[in-house]
Amino acid sequence: MTQLTDAAARVVSAGRLGLALVGGEAGAGKTALATALRARLETEGWTARWGGNPEDAPSGWTHVLDPVDVEPSSDPAVVRFRRHQAARAQLASHGRLLVVLDDVHWADEETTALLASLVVDPVVAPVLIVATYRTTDAPTTLLGRVARSEPTRVYLGGLAVSDVAAVVRDAVGLDVDATTAAVIHQRSAGNPFFVRELARLLADDSDLSTVPDGVRDVVRYRLFQLPAAVQAVLHTASVVGDTVALDVVGSLDEVEIAVRHGFLVETAAGQFQFSHALVRDTLYQGLTRSRRAHLHREVGRTLERLRPEDVAALAHHFSQASDERAGRYARAAAELAERRFAFSEAARFWRIALACATDVRDRLALTMGLVRALSFSGSLGESRALRASALDLLDSVDDPHLTAQVIASFDVPAIWTTHDDPALAARVVAVTERVLPSVDPATRGRLLATIAMELRSSGGARAVQAAQQAEAVARELDEPALLAFALNARFMQSFSRAGNTRDRLRIGTELVSLAARHSLLAFEVLGHLILLQSHSALADFAAADVHAEQVARLGDDYQLPGVGVFTQWYRALRASVAGQDVSALYRSAAAALADGQMPGFDDGMLSFALLCHEIHNGLPVDRDRDFGAFTPWCRPSGEIPESPRDQLFEARTCLHAAQAVAAADVETMRRLYDELLPATGELAGAGSGMLTLGPVDHYLDELARGIQRG
């Protein structure tokens, strides 16, 4: 308690939001400690808000914040940012405010994103957030996000035997002797919740020797002593969640009995919560599957009447009841989650909606919703697999218009020119070309951009033509979102020759300006990444640093998954250019790719980056690594192929040049000289924003001397 009251004093003194993390095993007293803190601070004039996070239920913030309306935007990340700003304003308006977020190990993406945003950039107001979590289910992502804010950390272990008597007295007003306290301690293993449950049994004149072992068994034992009507109300409440509104469960008399027996706690007029998550868990898990489904359906019907706008809760309850209404509400909840930029939550609801759908057209629309959500949340492998399944469904539907709409709905920005699934890309392009003649101009522009995006750097003249046509359509229609997608396609097709950096600078500059004007956040980030890469290629690291900072800021502000991958690689590049030891930096950056979500990006990249660093800095070169797709240039064993036309074209071609010079192959040297000459003045490979082999001019000089000798 002292640590938490000290934290409260600090936020008052500093006038800034602070965070306290309270961890411990189930029943260790986390909720009880937070409850005691609330009672203490309320007596000192604080306002308190409590948000529970029951598993698979809506955000705990819904119980803390009043509903807010924000200015709409076509970019969900902008909507999320505005919601976060509105939340900050609300929290700052209460004076001294305690916010308890209970059980954040179960918190959804929206809850953790807002919490991280508030902590990383603290509200300028005396606000203390206390977040409790089970150490057995530690929310590692959240803990990592907030670590740099140095929160107050409290860990609750078991009670000592000497503490038991005081807890019993506090719970039921009984004084117990040392022998009884020792028995309770032995039966409870010092778990505070279990101690209180045993104390309540002792107060009911139960013989502790006959009480069943296990905290859940004790809860059930006490439950069975209650009238059947009270048990029924508690079972319904367990289905509702941690926080229970009286108008949903219905019976005040039974609820008050549950309060008197320590199962529920009144938090406000008409609002109750379970005294502990273990109470709710025990009640819920004690229901048969049939009874759970029945109660979920009844709660859903009640909420449908009382709060029809709570689509997330309605989707949850009706899906648990296998009710046909689940699909409709789940789709609405998924769309709402996307508008809030909670893409993991959106994916969960898209899955529910998809499981309910039988019509092929509905399944296609829902599948593409899930594909987009997974792409934005970083689950790229599953996103690709589902996109392939959508193509399979399209094969069974002879509807060019529907096919075009499905293909055009995937307009996710991309920065890397190597496709993660070339076979899927070829299928998408074939289907797109088939329906292209039959669509309206706006859809045609989007489909043309899709062709260029899917073919990436290997599409030849057709891909370049498609990108140019898409840009022309977008400018003619004056449609900003389409123009942003078309500029992305133009970028993908800008690697047909070395040294095309100036063109990419123009694309990146226009993208940043366009996206900022029209709240297209994902494309604004893309524009900054393009400018980061382009300025790096020109060795203008002062400018590249500015764009790296912008990318990092936008990633933090809007909680964008995946952005950190590219900024980590850029930090390693900067260290390499400075001649520093980069092994740890590159390995850390590569670890972010270890899940296989981006095979087109990851295949041998770490080994290639380390080799380039060694050569550029004159260090001993290790060619025994696994270079993956880069092997023909890093460890050639025969004829070296021409490099793919992508961000690393100059780096591979410079390695090829070194081999040609060593072999005195004049014909190859002449060809490579002509290919590299447009990149004079640039750093080979730095256009990736990840690595460099050094100045292209060095290799041009070596080639020129080799040709002269030959």
Task: Walk me through this protein's architecture.
62% of the residues lie in helices and 7% in strands. The protein is α/β, with parallel strands linked by helices. Helix 10 packs across helix 13. The chain has a five-stranded parallel beta sheet with strand order 2-3-4-1-5. The mean pLDDT is 89. The chain has 35 helices and ten strands. The protein is elongated and about 105 Å long. Helix 3 links the parallel strand 2 and strand 3. Among the domains are: 155 residues, Rossmann fold (3-Layer(aba) Sandwich), CATH 3.40.50; 63 residues, no CATH class; 124 residues.
- Could you name the CATH class of the domain at 2-156? Alpha Beta
Mean pLDDT level: 89
Largest sheet: 5 strands, parallel
CATH architecture of the domain at 2-156: 3-Layer(aba) Sandwich
Strand order of the largest sheet: 2-3-4-1-5
What's the overall geometry?
elongated
- Find the CATH topology of the domain at 2-156: Rossmann fold
| Beta content | 5-15%
CATH homology superfamily name of the domain at 2-156: P-loop containing nucleotide triphosphate hydrolases
Please report the total strand number as a whole number.
Answer: 10
The termini sit apart by 82 Å
Percentage of helical residues? 55-70%
Low-confidence stretches: none
Classify the secondary structure makeup into a structural class: alpha/beta
Number of helices: 35
How much is the radius of gyration in Å? 30 Å
